[in-house]
Specification:
mainly alpha; two-stranded antiparallel ribbon; 72% helix; globular
C-alpha cells in the first residue's frame, strides 16, 4: 500500500487544495502587508514591535515553503516527491510552528513586563535585548526541528496521505519522551504563559484605570482597555483554537491506533492548524486604526499605479502593531492629567480651538 496515496475522495482532495490555496493567498498577502508597513515606519519602530514583525516572518515562511507543495499534492491525489519532500515538509512545518509559538510566548512575556512599568518614561526593553530574544526563538525552533533528523522523533506522512508531519504513531514505541516533551514545551506551557500574561495585562490596566480620578477620561480609558482585552483574548483563543484540535488528534494517534480515526476526520485539524498564519494580520487590521489607515492608503496608491508609500507614522497614542505601547502613552497622559489641576480647562480650550478648524 502506498503511504503517500490519498485516502480521501477526489472531490475532497480538490476541496482541500482549494482551501489551502485560499489560506496561502490570505497568509502571504496579510503578512506581506505587515512587513511592508513595518519597513515603511522602521525608523520610528519601538524594539518590542520587532516581535510582531518576527511573527509575520514565521507565518509568511510557513505559507511560502509549505502550502504550494500541499496544494499541488492535494490536486494530484497523492503526495508529490516521496520521502525527500515529506521530510522537508515536516521539518518546515515543525520549524516555523515552533518559531511562531515561541514568538507568541516571548511577545506575551515582554508585553506583560512593559505593562508593569507603565509610569516609567524610559524604554525598558532595548533593541539589543529584543534581538537576543529573536535569535533565541529561531535557535529554539531549529533545535526542535533537527531532533527528528538526529534520531529523537521521526517525520512521516499524515494518516490521510496528503501532508507530512511528525510520525506520531511510530513514536509511540521509539520516542515517547519526545512526544511528551513536544506537548509540554511547545503547547501546554506556552499556552499557560500566554493566557496568564494577557490576563495579567488586562488586570493591570483595569487597576490603573480605576485609580484615575478624572471622570472625563474614564470613557477613553475603558475604550482602550476593551480594545486591549479583545486583542489579548483573540490572540490567546486563536492560538488554542488552531493548535489544540491538532494536538488532541496527534495524541490520540500516539496512544491509540491512528487507523481508528477516519481519514477525513484526521485531515480537518491539520487544515485548521494552518489557518494560524492568517489571523494575526486580520487582528492588526481590525483593531489598529493607524495600521488600517496605512494599508488603505497603500492599496489606494498602488491601484492608481503610483509609488506605493505608506503614510508617515502618527506620533499619537496608537501604535500600529505593538498595541501595549499605546497603553504606555495613555498611562503617561493620564498621569499628567491627574497631576495638574488646571489640565481639564486647558483641554477644553484646546478642543474648542480644534472645533473652529
Amino acid at each position: 500500500m502506498d503511504i503517500y496515496a490519498s485516502k480521501l475522495s477526489t472531490a475532497v482532495d480538490y476541496g482541500a487544495g482549494a482551501f489551502l490555496l485560499l489560506i496561502a493567498i490570505l497568509s502571504v498577502g496579510g503578512n506581506l502587508l505587515v512587513l511592508v508597513m513595518a519597513y515603511k515606519r522602521s525608523s520610528h519602530m519601538k524594539p518590542p514591535e520587532l516581535l510582531s514583525v518576527n511573527l509575520a516572518v514565521t507565518d509568511l515562511g510557513a505559507a511560502v515553503s509549505m502550502y504550494p507543495l500541499a496544494v499541488a499534492s492535494s490536486w494530484n491525489h497523492a503526495w508529490l516527491g516521496g520521502d525527500a519532500t515529506c521530510i522537508y515538509y515536516g521539518l518546515m512545518g515543525f520549524f516555523f510552528g515552533v518559531a511562531s509559538v515561541a514568538t507568541l510566548t516571548v511577545m506575551a512575556i515582554v508585553r506583560f513586563s512593559v505593562s508593569l512599568t507603565l509610569q516609567s518614561p524610559k524604554e525598558k526593553i532595548s533593541k539589543r535585548r529584543v534581538h537576543v530574544l529573536l535569535a533565541g526563538t529561531w535557535l529554539y525552533a531549529l533545535l526542535w526541528a533537527l531532533f527528528p533528523l538526529l534520531g529523537w522523533g521521526k517525520y512521516g506522512p499524515e494518516p490521510f496521505g496528503l501532508s507530512c508531519t511528525l510520525a506520531w504513531g511510530e513514536m509511540k514505541e521509539h520516542s515517547p519522551s519526545f512526544v511528551i516533551s513536544i506537548f509540554s514545551m511547545n503547547l501546554a506551557i506556552p499556552a499557560i504563559i500566554i493566557i496568564s500574561c494577557y490576563f495579567g495585562i488586562a488586570l493591570r490596566l483595569y487597576v490603573s484605570y480605576k485609580s484615575v480620578g478624572n471622570g472625563n477620561l474614564v470613557p477613553n480609558a475603558v475604550k482602550m482597555q476593551r480594545r486591549l482585552m479583545m486583542i489579548a483574548v483573540l490572540i490567546s483563543v486563536g492560538f488554542l483554537a488552531c493548535w489544540t484540535p491538532y494536538g488532541i488528534v496527534s495524541l490520540w494517534s500516539v496512544y491509540s491506533s491512528s487507523a481508528s480515526i477516519p481519514p477525513h476526520i484526521s485531515m480537518l485539524p491539520c487544515l485548521f492548524a494552518k489557518t494560524s498564519t492568517v489571523y494575526n494580520p486580520l487582528i492588526y487590521y481590525t483593531f489598529s486604526k493607524s495600521f488600517k489607515q496605512e494599508v488603505k492608503q497603500l492599496l489606494h496608491l498602488c491601484s492608481r499605479s503610483e509609488t506605493c508609500q505608506a503614510s508617515r507614522p502618527n506620533n499619537g497614542t496608537e501604535n500600529s502593531i505593538y498595541l501595549v505601547c499605546e497603553s504606555n502613552k495613555l498611562k503617561e497622559d493620564l498621569s499628567v492629567e491627574h497631576s495638574f489641576d488646571k489640565s481639564r480647562e486647558i483641554e477644553t480650550r484646546f478642543n474648542s480651538t480644534q472645533d473652529i478648524y
